[in-house]
Design brief:
Elements (H helix, E strand, L loop, with lengths): L19 H4 L11 E2 L11 H13 L13 H13 L8 E4 L2 H12 L5 E6 L4 H8 L3 E6 L1 E2 L5 E2 L2 H11 L1 E7 L11 H13 L3 E5 L25 E6 H5 L7 E4 L3 H14 L6 H13 L1 H25 L4 E2 L7 E5 L7 H11 L2 E2 L1 E2 L10 E5 L4 H14 L1
Parallel strand pairs: 1-13, 3-4, 3-7, 7-8, 8-9
Antiparallel strand pairs: 2-10, 5-6, 9-10, 11-12, 12-15, 14-15
Length: 393
């Protein structure tokens, strides 16, 4: 059957669907009519193949305990997708399911570190990283990315190694592609990070959830950069970002080192979450088998949104700089040259523009004066949001 859900221009009403993005504004301190472009899900219907597969499963009428096993078609679909889209040969022996990448990060922290141990991240970075580290009573160590002021970020490798040694870091949480700054780390950059971690016996949790959205670079799977990196790496992927399935709670974690995998699984079982979501299994398998047409189409549309936003910002928002976006569907806007107190930017965005974006401050102190905006929405919605920023400035 042909793919039916390829209309990305039509605005779909998500209100009163228990949607975190739209239905929780008042509870989070915003006006109920705020325009939300914050949380990283899409405003698009997922593939019609996925929609139909979930309907068919629902019609079965029994929603009991579920799981996946070798030969049932699930891993074969995952393996095929990874090979087609990333030229990555994954092994079924590496695979562990998880309800999500954030859950997997928390699980890894508890499995591989002890209370008081140090975990390092590169800020500004996806804010749950720091929250999960501190909430699990580990020491947060921050390596600040270098920003050139003209829209590009790089890694301070000397600071990275120095802080690993000083704090006896046990675990590094890598974001690749990087959320929110949009970098797709080069093979050389990943090689340097990996060699430092190998030298000092630091495990790497590589969050690669956005790896299907690459615009100006080539994505490199961290554990494949060097033959021995997979021995100390936990790689996290999911169909949730690629196919807009976050609410179905299914992620695919790959751990080649058997001892690390066994530790991860043991901690997983201790959590009490030992069976995956039935609909998540069905949706992920279907996405990886039949979702290519939809994925290619949505990427083309989002790439168009990126070009539109870049042109609009250059022509209409003097003093606002779009940080170079090599990957993800999240834009990182630099307001630091606007001549406005960075601490007042949030107030303007929220109360004057009536927009719900992600304030840069939640990504770390180096994010103050920045805003993250999600462009996985209709072109009309994106235009409205950018126009509101123009008017409020």
């Amino acid at each position: 059957m042909p793919e039916k859900n390829l209309d990305f221009d039509t605005v779909i009403n998500r209100y009163k669907t228990k949607c975190l993005k739209y239905d929780f504004a008042k509870k989070r301190g915003y006006r109920e009519d705020v325009l939300p472009l914050w949380v990283a899900d899409m405003d698009f219907k997922s593939s019609s193949y996925i929609e139909q597969a979930i309907i068919d499963q629902a019609k079965h009428g029994i929603y009991g305990y579920s799981n996946i096993q070798e030969g049932d078609g699930f891993f074969e679909a995952v393996k095929g997708f990874m090979k087609r889209h990333h030229d990555w040969d994954v092994d079924g022996k590496w695979h562990v399911h998880s309800p999500g990448v954030c859950f997997a990060i928390a699980n890894a922290i508890r499995a591989y570190t002890n209370i008081g141990d140090s975990v390092i991240i590169c800020q500004p970075v996806y804010y749950p990283f720091s929250n999960i580290i501190t909430q699990n009573n580990r020491k947060l160590v921050v390596n600040e990315l270098l920003y050139d002021g003209n829209g590009e970020y790089s890694i301070d490798f000397d600071d990275f190694e120095r802080k690993i040694v000083k704090n006896q870091v046990k675990l590094f949480i890598l974001c690749n592609p990087h959320n929110p700054v949009g970098r797709v780390w080069t093979k050389d950059e990943l090689l340097k990070l990996g060699e430092i971690c190998k030298k000092h016996s630091v495990l790497v949790f590589s969050d690669e959830i956005h790896f299907d959205f690459i615009w100006e670079a080539r994505h490199n799977i961290f554990q494949e950069v060097s033959d021995d990196f997979k021995e100390f790496t936990i790689t996290a992927t999911s169909a949730s970002k690629s196919f807009n399935l976050a609410g179905l709670q299914q992620a695919n974690i790959f751990i080649a080192n058997k001892k690390l995998k066994d530790k991860f699984k043991m901690m997983y079982e201790v959590s009490g979450l030992d069976e995956p979501n039935l609909m998540g299994i069905v949706a992920t398998e279907t996405a990886y088998k039949y979702g290519d047409e939809w994925l290619f189409a949505v990427k083309k549309y989002i790439k168009g949104n990126l070009a539109f936003a870049k042109k609009y910002i250059e022509e209409n928002l003097p003093g606002v700089r779009l940080v170079k976006t090599e990957g993800t569907f999240l834009l990182w806007l630099d307001f630091t040259a606007c001549g406005i107190d960075p601490l007042k930017i949030d107030d303007l965005i929220i109360n004057k523009a009536n927009l719900w974006l992600d304030s840069g401050r939640i990504f770390g102190k180096s994010g103050i004066g920045f805003q993250r905006i999600n462009i996985a929405c209709s072109r009309a919605t994106l235009y409205e949001a950018l126009d509101r920023i123009k008017n409020c400035l």
